[in-house]
Amino acid sequence: MDTLKASELGLSKIQQARKDSGRNRDDSEWLVAASEILCPESEWASGGSYAEGCSEATWRRFLTGYSVAAPAFKAFCQVLGFDWREIADRPDADLEDLSDGQYIDWDSCPEVTVFYDRTLELTQMSEWIGEENCRLIAILGMGGIGKTTLAIQLAKQLKYRFQIVIWRSLQYAPPPDKFIPNLIKSIPNSQAKKALPDTLESNIVRLVELCNSQRCLIILDGLESLFSNNDLAGKYRPGYEDYAKLFYQIGASIHKSCFVITSHEKPREIVKLEGRKRPVRCLKISGLQKRAARQLLQEQGLVEEPEWDRLIQRYRGNPLALKIVADTVLELFNGKSSEFIQQNTIFVGQLSEVLDRQFERLSDIEKKVLYRIATAESPVTISQMREKISPAVSHSQIIEVLESLARRSLIEKITEKTSDSDPVMFTLQPVVMKYIVNQFKHIFQ
Known about the structure:
Layout (H helix, E strand, L loop, with lengths): L2 E2 L3 H14 L7 H10 L17 H8 L4 E2 H10 L4 H4 L15 E3 L13 H12 L5 E5 L6 H12 L5 E6 L6 H11 L13 H14 L2 E6 L20 H11 L5 E6 L4 H6 L6 E5 L5 H11 L7 H7 L4 H15 L3 H6 L8 H9 L4 H12 L6 H7 L6 H13 L4 E3 L10 E3 L2 H15 L1
Parallel strand pairs: 3-5, 4-7, 4-8, 5-6, 6-7
Antiparallel strand pairs: 1-2, 9-10
Helix pairs in contact: 2-4, 6-7, 8-9, 9-10, 12-14, 17-20
């Protein structure tokens, strides 16, 4: 018999709906209501027997995220007021229940075998897409933080809401005059088969029309590959500026689809369009919560669990950094976190390859500002940064650089203030600090 279980996001919704109902978890009326759905021709009452596959044990399994028989799962979801596909961990388990003619194109989407809890982020984006009809969402964060994995999980959980789901990687920087026409051709629609317009602007208009004729979810992964080197954040490389037109039109034009992009840095056109009441939003993700990060370290095989929190804090919950460090701890210290911590160092390791790609796009002034922050003994103010930089730069220049670094997710702002008169201060994640000192000390010393 087919079974279903709730996803991480689904389980959160189940638990909240059950609490909001005001009814006790063990209230037999839950089972009566589910039995009436499963077998409406019979009469059911509290304390008696229930429909086949519907029992107190099954209900408890459902509430705690374990697999139950598919009919019972769907009935329990209905009792709580949900479409089962919104809750299920694998909503494609019963394909005949999916909309006729649904088209899914994963293309080069990487396989994700393990997903660590991002319930808050998934809930937020689910609301933006489902309730607020957002047309463009940017998932932002530094390398290794889990943007691509989160986008995949979002697509899998929400795909039932769309007629068309398309995944495309921008890793190899396809030119816009080739990428946009190819994207149009990949959307199954009678308009898509027509001869394409001669101009790129007209192709963008055609794409928006297609996105209004059918509800599409289009994920574009790795937007940072399109940005230029040695410049401030979010500026496209020469020949790629038309991507700005594409995203501006997607965000500004009325249609019923949603584009989700992932990037190390925020595109400038999105800065102009985003807002809490607008259909363009940005989600800047940070490291894993402690519970999810501990699960990662456990699955990597580390021992001495009391020491894990120090590792998680040191690497700010960055999942890639934690995996790299865990491999090192296993290889050199037999999985003992305490022996690694005793080395009193920030190990960068293979994470430097990820940071290399991000730092090669930085302008010289950004590198100089980062080095001054990294070599300071404590968080620094804007005025303190200016004093350390030669030749001298103005306040406005420093602010422009800090804004660019913030859009790249490379600096941290200290928000804990003892009084309103305390100035804003800036620092870096420990692993970024160590990388910068290693890479730039021969340049700026």
